[in-house]
Amino acid sequence: MHQPLQMISADRAIGVPARARETLFMEGEPCRSVLELRRGLVRAVKFSSEGERQVMALFFPGDVLGLPLAQEHRFTAEAVSDVLYARQSSLEWQTGLSVCNSPGVDSPLRAIWQEEKAFMDRGLILGRGGIMARLAAFLGYVVRRLPIQNEVYDFSLPQGDIASYLATSPETVCRLMRQLRERKIIAMARKDKLEILDAQWLDRLAAGESV
Amino acid sequence: MHQPLQMISADRAIGVPARARETLFMEGEPCRSVLELRRGLVRAVKFSSEGERQVMALFFPGDVLGLPLAQEHRFTAEAVSDVLYARQSSLEWQTGLSVCNSPGVDSPLRAIWQEEKAFMDRGLILGRGGIMARLAAFLGYVVRRLPIQNEVYDFSLPQGDIASYLATSPETVCRLMRQLRERKIIAMARKDKLEILDAQWLDRLAAGESV
DNA sequence: CGATGAATTGAGAAGCGTCAAAGTACGTGG
DNA sequence: CCACGTACTTTGACGCTTCTCAATTCATCG
Predict the structure, then answer these.
(1) Of A48, A151, B56, B118, which alpha carbon lies 20 to 30 A from A122's?
(2) Which pLDDT belongs to residue A101?
(3) Phi and psi dihedrals of B109, rounded to 5?
(4) For chain B, which ranges sit under pLDDT 70?
(5) Mutation to test the A interface, candidates B45, B67, B94, most A Cβ within 10 Å
(6) Which helix (H) or strand (E) holds B37?
(7) What is the pTM of this model?
């Protein structure tokens, strides 16, 4: 199932590869290393006490995840698509904390904030009334973080994950996406290609206007 | 409106008082001090880009909030009830970071994680289907963090705040709370006193069983 | 070329939001 | 001490949104 990675050293620059749906680290596991995502999407997953699975956050190229704020990882990280990432030892990272009391903070604190923000962003999105508002806000959010290639975004994110992230059902996600397509607000030439045709309209939907 | 606080020094031990609904710090304001809550409840509020208000997290006695992960505060902190808190200079706190690379981590990192967790907990609650599940999970959560006095919790939290936290309407919160009272799952002798009569049942509701 | 998981679509029912109005608690000022 | 204003809670009625279930089509991979 999960193809074993060959742990070639000296890929600090290039990055370690992982296949779609592979688990990068698991909740509860001791924090051994910090990951910096280079390519692809990673989802943070948590299981509520009753065992229900939830996508709590998404991480994009450039993001750092798995910071050792506690002894153990606070969530499970899974590759959504095929990814490339770099690893750093947690201890190494922690020693980096000592050197950051300079006023120009571009330090580990920034990384912590960036990781935390991913979770807070979901809260902000889930707080909206109406699933269309959530979806529109979500698309706006994702698009701001996704690498763009001539107007088209690489959107290889299963609708099941979107549904879980938005706390709704896959069917609803599908129907609302179709609406957005029919109204020419977005376009999807392929299932994994996203284009925003009318960003303003999307914003208005995110604001809760039914239009 | 906001009674000016007299900034008596040497209340590091006792704590500074603030009245209900007072703003402790505002989003965007530069991080000057870190707060440690001693008594009462504080809510973290954010305004979505369209100006809609959201309660993103709650802080309980013992919690630390306002950590300078960035230059500016990432949310607005408001006293829900009358509160007592201690202040520490942000710079002082930051220098504390340097001294924490020991393995026994009971350091600033723990405080960061605790603050972040408040936001993540909301995400976990909002992820559930059915508002009753959310409310039940919320009550279970709150109760685990609230100081108890012989079986009865001090629950001075307006339903409007609960509604905002749960991303629902105040009316729905009211109706569901009444259901819980009628089913003898909770009891509220007064509006600000909460008692859990059947914790197991509450858990089942939180798990999504309609029962 | 089948097999597996994801996306799609429809129909029906229930949950929940909205609007409107009245009731309650609490602090403030006369 | 009472009257009033403000903020919060409660309740009802109505209708849309969204979930659930089920069936079909579509993609991807072996």
Answers:
(1) A151
(2) 52
(3) -60, -35
(4) 1-13, 98-106, 211
(5) B94
(6) strand B33-39
(7) 0.90
